[in-house]
Amino acid sequence: MTTYRDDAEDTLDELLRDGARIEELPSDDQDENFEDVDESSEESQDDFSGIPFPGKHLQAKPTQLPLWLQPAIFNLFRDEELLTTTTEQQLKTTKECLPLLLGEEFLKLPLNSHSIPHLNREKHASFLRANVGPLPSGYVLMDASRPWLFYWVMAGLTFLDEDVTEYKQRLIETLRPLQNPTGGFGGGHGQYSHCAGTYACLLALAAVDGLEMVDRKAMWHFLGSVKQDDGGFRMAIGAEEDIRGAYCAMTAITLLNLPLELPPDAPARKAGLTSFTDRLGEWVGKCQTYEGGIAGAPNNEAHGAYAFCALACLSILDAPHISIPKYLNTTTLLSWLTGIQTSPEGGFAGRANKLVDACYSHWVGGCWALIQAALAGPKHEGRTTDLWSREGLIRYLLCCGQQEGKRGGMRDKPSTRPDAYHTCYSLAGLSAAQNHFFYDVKGETQDEVTGRLVSAFQWTAKPATAEERKAWAFDEVDAVRPVHPVFVLPMEVVERTRSQFEKGGF
């Protein structure tokens, strides 16, 4: 039986505490897309002093909530006698979201036929484009995360059906110094290669059709250097081993059609491993926790983003209806995933008893296509019954994830500021809610000639019907492009990348 450390440090909470967050710093000549928030405004206040508890500051609890706010699985309005930071934060979040969801307060945005805001497409695109221009000085803290800015912008724009080919040459020249001679990409100039930075660079380059600049052979050797004896992957040489490394590495191997055989100099060969896939599924399975969710590494806490990484990694390894049930307990995983769709907000939290956050629209919302394909099995035909509330997520993103005014971008929740990260993953989550994704069980899982793993290329997408759009509260003009369930890029971009390296070899 797996044991769990009682004294394990909650590293993610440390990284995300208020003092550690990156803040945008105003400058005299900054773009309107980086306009500073009025610090005296109510939305910028995090002081809970003087707020009566429990829940009196909500004034009046609605006696009848719309159906999208009250699925039976949600636990609405928990009145807990024991007041904690968690309950106080939840009450504050409910207070700021509920008026927007119920239409008691309106953003100054055009409303769709369901009386909720349209997707502010043009302003969101403008906001994303500003993130690859001159940035406020506070962004110096993201020097090691430069590839992520490029990915969030390029991917987000393509989700909005914007043309990003104008950025191709500029992006290639910007990323060239980040590619190390030993393979892979660092997060910034002169930095060691890292699986996360490599993943972000590859997807950004794929979006602009610029993958020809990648040194595939050196990449193969770099990924071989981070493959571990137990089957997992480190994020960098000497760095932590976690589920992100497994997903990022397998994404690079598959998109670039690298040999599955480990390089001769791979350290894992000393333990008898010969392939990148050796012991990988077993290692992913060890990351599942007693809750049913997936942790970053064995014996850690379950987290929504790690659930996506695990499911996507296994869907690269083999067909989802084969690999996912083989290595994971799908019953407990399903229970955990359904439990973190929040109420009354309708979005997703990243962990149990945590707050809604728009970024999990992708990290958790993106899990559903994968887990439903796993549960449907080889008889997967046509549309399946949803195990989550698409309407709840769409309403949260359109009502609470956008802000009024001249500035675009999408945000975590109404009291926070927009950023490229939340904009990209909010749009990806919107795609997950607006479209149907189907796995072709008759397709190949491995190319007989090149040995390439091809199960992740067997997905198709269909948009919502007019009847479904009506049920899910969005208009056709608010639809975003179908986003690939595994690679988080438009479906057409993934197919183009598959064809580019179809022959394999170096």
Automatic annotation (TrEMBL):
Swiss-Prot/TrEMBL GO biological process terms: prenylation
Keyword Repeat: yes
Keyword rRNA processing: no
GO molecular function, one term: protein farnesyltransferase activity
The family this protein is said to belong to: Belongs to the protein prenyltransferase subunit beta family.
Subunit structure: Heterodimer of an alpha and a beta subunit.
Catalytic activity: L-cysteinyl-[protein] + (2E,6E)-farnesyl diphosphate = S-(2E,6E)-farnesyl-L-cysteinyl-[protein] + diphosphate
Cofactor details (free text): Binds 1 zinc ion per subunit.
EC number: 2.5.1.58
Superkingdom per UniProt: Eukaryota
InterPro entries, per the entry: FTB, PGGT1B-like, Prenyltrans, Terpenoid_cyclase/PrenylTrfase
Chain intervals with Acidic residues compositional bias: 25-46
One Gene Ontology CC term in the entry: protein farnesyltransferase complex
Region feature Disordered, mapped onto this chain: 17-55
Keyword annotations of the record: Metal-binding, Prenyltransferase, Repeat, Transferase, Zinc
Protein name as annotated: Protein farnesyltransferase subunit beta
Span of domain Prenyltransferase alpha-alpha toroid: 119-488
Function statement: Catalyzes the transfer of a farnesyl moiety from farnesyl diphosphate to a cysteine at the fourth position from the C-terminus of several proteins. The beta subunit is responsible for peptide-binding.
Pfam families according to UniProt: Prenyltrans
Named cofactor requirement(s): Zn(2+)
